[in-house]
C-alpha cells in the first residue's frame, strides 16, 4: 500500500549516513526519490487505495466539490454527514445535535468516524469532524486531507443565505464568527494540502484545484532547482539525474558551479481570487499560505511549516501586525520592517531560516554556517540561530564575517552582543564585497570543504541572501503590504502600486519582483542607492562597471555594496534562463571588472526597474524634513529610499517605501540630522541620548538590552586574506564540534 509520506524514509536514510559521504548523498538522494515516484506513477492511478479527504468549515462546498472530484476520477464519493452519520443515527444531523447537545454530539460523531473505513474514495467530512482527534487520526491514516480554505466572511454570507443556524458550537453569547475562528486551529492541525477558495469561485474550478493540488503533493519531482549558471541544452545526463529539491538547496546554499539556485519551473502563481481571500488574513496566515506554495510538503509538511512560522513570528516581533503599513504623506506609505528582535528587515528571513535549516539537514553531520554582512544581517543571523533548540545548537554553529570598519558603531555592538555559544562574529579588515566574495570562493573550494567534511565531520552552509530560503520570507511581506493597503481601503485589489527599496545586494528588490510575478499588482520597482551607485548606473545604462570604483563609507552602510549578488537571479530570469549567458556575464565581471547587457535585455530590465541615488547630505536632510513635518523618524536607509521616491515617482498610484531598519540603529547620523547635540562615540550613550528626548518616537525595544550585554565584549578580527579566513573557520570547528 502506498503511504502519504513515503519520502520520509528516504530522508531518514540520508540522515543516518556517514558524514564523510554527505555531499554524495545530497546529490544521490533525489535520484532514488525520483525513481520511486516514477515507478509508482507507472502502475497506479492518482488515488490508488488512498482517499482524498475534503475538510473545511460548514458552507465551504465540500459535498459539491467532492461529487465533482469523484466524477472526474470515476471513484466512490462518500459524504460523512449524509452517508455515515445520518445512516448510523437514523436521524438528521441537526436533530442529533438538538437531541444530545454540543459536547456529546462531537463524541458521537467521532465514534462514528472511528468505525468508518474506505479506500480509493473521495470523502467529504463534516465541518466538525476535525475537532475529534482520535477520529481524524483514524481517517487520515489512509488519506490525503485537503483543506478547502474559504474566507470567514464568505462562509458567514453563505450560511446566512442558506439560513443554517444549527452549527456545532453555536450558542447564545457565541457568534458564528467566533465559532468559525475557533475551528481554524483544528483544520490547520490535520490538513496535508490547502486549496484557497474565494467567494465567487465555481465548484468545478475548486474541484480542478483540488486535483492539481493532489498531483503536486504526490509529485515533488516537479519542484526541482537549477543553478543560474547551468545550461538546459548543455546539461549532462548526470546533471539531469542529480536533481535538487528545496531541502537540498537550503543546505547547499551556493551551487557547485558558483551560481545561485532558482526553481526550475519558476514560482507559483496566485489568482486574483486567491489573493483577495487573504485580505482579511493575519500576517502569519498569509505567510503560511504563500510559503506552502513555495515549499513542497515532501521537504517540509504543512503542519511543521505552520509550527516554524508561528515560532518565527508569533512572539519575536513587537508589533502584532508583524509588518505594518503606515501612511507617511501624500501617496507615500511606509512598510515597517524593523519590529523584529534586531530592528531590521533581516529578521523576517533570519527568524525563520534557522528552523527551516535545522529541519532539513541530515542528523549525522555537523554544520558551520558562513555569513557575510554589510551591517544588519550579522545581528539578525546571530540572534536567529541562537534561538534554535539546544540539541540543534550542538550540531549547528555560525560564523559572521563583517567589515571591521564598515558598519555603524551600534551595528558592531549588536553583532558582538548577539554572540552565543554557537554563534560568533569576526571583523575583517576590508569591505563587504571582500567578505562576500571570500565566502563564495570558500564554498567552491572543494579541497577545503572536502577536508572539513572528512577530518571534522562538518559541512559548510550559507545563510546570506544567496541562499534561496532567505528570499521567500521577503516575498511574503511585500505581498502582505499590498493586501494591507486593500484592507485599509486605500486601493481596490488590482490597482497598481510602486515599490521603492534601499538596495544593496538586490535581495529585497528581487523579492518584490517575485511577489509581482506571483500576482501582486506592482507596477514599478524603484531601486534606491547611496553614493555607491553602481546598481543605479547599471539599471540606467546596462553597464555594470566596477573598474576604478572604490567603496564609499556612508550613513547607510547596509547598502554600501558594489557587487549585488542577487542581481544574478534576476538576469537569469529575464534572459529566459540562459545559464551560459549568465556565466559569461559574471565571469567577465570577475575577470575584467565589468559587463554590458544586450539591448533587448536592457529593455526588459527597464520595463521592471527604475533607479536613483542620493548623497549623505540629502539623506540627512530628508530625515530632518520628515521629522519636522510629521514627527516620524526615518532611518538612514529609508531616508535614501524616500529621497529617490520623491524624485522618481509620478504620483499616479500609491508608493510603498520599505523602511528596512529602526532609526535608533544609526543614532549618530540621526542625532546629526536632527541637530540635537554633540555626538558621543559610545553606542550605549548615543541610545541614552536619543531616549532622553521625549519628543522623539521611542528607540527600539531590543537595542538597549543587547548593547547593555555587550559591555567590553570581545570579537575576533582578521586580515583580508583567504588563508587567514579558512584558518579561522577550521579553528572554530575544532573548538565547537570536537
Automatic annotation (TrEMBL):
The modification N6-(pyridoxal phosphate)lysine is found at residue 346. The keyword Amino-acid biosynthesis applies. CDD domains: SK, Thr-synth_2. InterPro entries: P-loop_NTPase, Ser/Thr_deHydtase_PyrdxlP-BS, Shikimate/glucono_kinase, Shikimate_kinase/TSH1, Thr_synth_N, Thr_synth_N_sf, Thr_synthase-like, TrpB-like_PALP_sf. GO terms for biological process: amino acid biosynthetic process. It holds the Pfam family SKI. Pathway: Amino-acid biosynthesis. Its cofactor is pyridoxal 5'-phosphate. GO terms for cellular component: cytoplasm. GO terms for molecular function: pyridoxal phosphate binding. Gene3D superfamilies: 3.40.50.1100, P-loop containing nucleotide triphosphate hydrolases (3.40.50.300), Threonine synthase, N-terminal domain (3.90.1380.10). Keywords: Amino-acid biosynthesis, Pyridoxal phosphate. Belongs to the threonine synthase family. This is THNS1 protein.
